[in-house]
Input
Amino acid sequence: MRVLFGSVVLGAILAAGFVVAQERVERPPAPKSGSEAGKPPQFDIDRFFKDFDKNGDGFLQPEELPPELRPAFERIDTNRDGKISREELARGIGHLQPRRRASDMVYMLIETSDSDEDSRNEVQRAYEILLSLDKNRDGKIDAQELKAGRERILKSRIDSLFKQLDTNNDGRISREEAKGQIRQDFNEIDRNRDGFIDRDELMRAATARPPAPSAPREGERRPAPPPRPPDR
Output
């Protein structure tokens, strides 16, 4: 698994966060008093059908949904009859939530900053990072350019980590020298079990892909992950 950089490298690159796309579905306000107070607002299926069931047949066709919601159609249409019933919509409403994208961070930098100068600096930095990936200057970033850029970033970060942690300059990180996430995952990173982490082992940990999670069965809820211990 990506024991080291899953939260370190990508976290640093995407630290600005995400911006959720605006929902086309209006939700009623949460009740303020009475027995329903404190409960989350309920999705108004009747309102949704009134807004989007253009032919009034009691079903939703793909072309009746807003374009940003159409990719979820097949996941909601569980009986595969090419239309969505009220019952299917009630069961599959979670699929209509807009998906977050890593690139939405750029919108956040442009739209939500209360300081145009600070925002400008960050947007400019993002632009320069992307521009540095486009080595052939064709205005596009292809897969090979992205791979090469990732390797440069990882090498730079590993060089920095060794500079900070390898206090005796022997080219290895001992358990005593390790800190934070590296110390926490020391045994997993130290593949040859010699009590040290070398550059190859650190790079391997940084580039390993985590196993794909299995899809939960219908009605099954995944347990919340345990909290991470603080860095030591």
